[in-house]
Design goal:
35% strand
Length: 188
């Protein structure tokens, strides 16, 4: 269950540091959000997506290069601290991959793997904070529905650019040079 702590004062980074180690801690709109670590199916979808994209777009054999990928990176976007399931930045915006616990430069692409515990937060507050931070692309993967929705930021608003369901191949911006089966993200 997604737990929101609403202290009398706005949450601070010390609240994130003080969170139990088995929880993912984020700050959105002054509130601390704590979620349990992802379930195994969620982790499988994250790993499947990361592996396919990183191999192709980090400069692997036969693929285009130009991206830095990370699983569960921590972003400090103004007063907000967000931890997407996956994120990437173009190398032209970040030539050197940082060796820090957190980064203040917003990603170019974010992927959230929806789960019953995080769905509401991912679809509302986090999506809005990514928009305000000018994240150019947002993918929402739903392991229960076996779908992927790809959004692009157009004129400061999210626009659905593509939607995929089980049985089809994913090919969506900013990674349209690669197609792979959506079913590759599921454990069965």
């Amino acid at each position: 269950m997604n737990t929101q702590t609403r202290p009398a004062r706005p949450a601070t980074y010390q609240d994130v540091l003080d969170a139990p180690p088995h929880m993912v801690a984020e700050i959105a709109n002054g509130r601390l959000h704590l979620q349990p670590r992802p379930a195994m199916r969620h982790s499988r979808a994250t790993f499947g997506m990361a592996g396919r994209l990183d191999e192709a777009f980090r400069g692997g054999p036969g693929g285009p290069s130009g991206w830095h990928f990370a699983i569960e990176p921590e972003f400090h976007l103004g007063p907000d601290v967000l931890v997407p399931d996956l994120a990437a930045r173009q190398r032209e915006r970040m030539p050197v991959f940082p060796d820090t616990a957190a980064c203040e430069l917003a990603p170019d692409w974010v992927c959230e793997i929806l789960s019953p515990r995080t769905r509401r937060f991912d679809l509302t507050e986090k999506r809005e904070l990514y928009r305000l931070a000018s994240v150019a692309h947002l993918w929402l993967v739903d392991p229960d529905a076996r779908t992927l929705e790809a959004f692009a930021l157009v004129a400061a608003a999210w626009t659905l650019a593509a939607a995929f369901q089980d049985g089809g191949d994913i090919r969506a911006a900013p990674f349209e040079a690669l197609a792979f089966p959506l079913a590759a993200l599921w454990p069965d």
